[in-house]
């Protein structure tokens, strides 16, 4: 299984950079720099930017195939060059193209907070996952692979994280099918597990990552197995956005009770200095405490050895909330401060 950090995923990029440094590549490099600079003259628009990038990749594919540096190159070598081109271009344009709109930031936050609530009560049986498919070790591996998606800037590397997660699930299903002489029905088993893994992982900026891959991964690569896995993760995201009682095989009152309890637990974990003091007498009193006191740091003065398992989980949840908010705020501030000269200079400095 290929990982975004594996050696196999990187030679095409370094070979591409090496060729771009050669005098014979001056015409190609000028085209790339001109394309990058052109982005600074227009306001970000995800769909339009995606069309521009895809058209540029198509144009550059023809230029590379006809270029002396790739004379007599195999199709695989051409593909490696195009992979290097995609990573170079999209790394340069990442701040311009990833999560660029307020709507994206809001959607990311809403999904993350929704998943944070679902994590507190959703179990495999709520998604009709049969016990024979329960495998905590495989699920944990899939969770870790999906959580890596926000660590990379290139569309291919983000997609590899998604692929790795989905392949873990697929391998689990194949192994169970073979060892139990059981015929599995594809998406009927795969999608519920992927939804559960997504809830367990709560990957940062899930919406923006999926949108980024859809728009900026070369279209010729979003086919077959890749397209299937990506489509399933998009379906998992939509399931989470639209989740209700019936989709979790619950009564409406039970679902609402779980959601309210999860909200209250989240508020308590943020507002209470320590779990030993107990929760506020009501959600309203708790919210008033948050509003009046501002952000609280309940574990700032705690010793690690003194924390019980529930407090450790609360501290981890708080950490994830802080990191998510800090990431979104930092990105917004960077977008406000950057100007055309800075962007052009960063391209020239490359």
From TrEMBL:
GO terms for cellular component: cytosol; endocytic vesicle. Residues 105-249 form the VPS9 domain. Residues 266-285 have a biased composition (Polar residues). GO terms for biological process: vesicle-mediated transport. Gene3D superfamilies: 1.10.246.120, VPS9 domain. One of its GO terms (molecular function) is small GTPase binding. Pfam families: DUF5601 (PF18151), VPS9 (PF02204). Residues 266-286 are annotated as: Disordered. This is VPS9 domain-containing protein.
């Amino acid at each position: 299984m290929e990982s975004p950090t594996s050696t196999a995923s990187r030679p095409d990029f370094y070979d591409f950079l090496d060729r771009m440094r050669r005098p014979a590549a001056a015409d190609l490099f000028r085209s790339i720099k001109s394309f990058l600079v052109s982005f600074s003259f227009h306001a970000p628009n995800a769909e339009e930017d995606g069309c521009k990038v895809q058209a540029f990749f198509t144009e550059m594919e023809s230029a590379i195939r006809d270029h002396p540096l790739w004379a007599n190159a195999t199709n695989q070598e051409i593909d490696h060059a195009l992979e290097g081109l995609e990573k170079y271009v999209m790394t340069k344009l990442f701040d311009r193209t990833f999560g660029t709109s307020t709507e994206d930031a809001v959607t990311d936050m809403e999904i993350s907070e929704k998943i944070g609530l679902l994590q507190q009560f959703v179990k495999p049986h709520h998604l009709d996952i049969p016990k024979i498919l329960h495998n905590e070790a495989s699920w944990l591996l899939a969770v870790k692979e999906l959580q890596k998606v926000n660590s990379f800037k290139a569309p291919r590397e983000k997609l590899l994280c998604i692929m790795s997660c989905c392949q873990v699930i697929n391998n689990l299903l194949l192994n169970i099918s073979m060892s139990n002489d059981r015929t599995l029905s594809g998406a009927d088993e795969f999608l519920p597990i992927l939804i559960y893994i997504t809830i367990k992982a709560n990957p940062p900026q899930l919406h923006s990552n999926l949108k980024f891959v859809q728009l900026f991964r070369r279209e010729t690569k979003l086919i077959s197995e890749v397209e299937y896995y990506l489509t399933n993760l998009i379906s998992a995201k939509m399931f989470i956005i639209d989740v209700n009682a019936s989709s979790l095989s619950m009564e409406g009152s039970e679902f609402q009770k779980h959601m309210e309890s999860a909200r209250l637990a989240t508020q308590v974990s943020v507002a209470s200095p320590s779990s030993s003091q107990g929760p506020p007498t009501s959600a309203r009193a708790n919210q008033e405490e948050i509003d009046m006191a501002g952000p609280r740091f309940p574990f700032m003065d705690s010793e690690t050895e003194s924390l019980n398992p529930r407090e450790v989980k609360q501290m981890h949840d708080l950490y994830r909330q802080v990191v998510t908010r800090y990431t979104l705020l930092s990105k917004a501030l960077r977008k406000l401060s950057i100007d055309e000269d800075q962007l052009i200079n960063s391209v020239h400095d490359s």
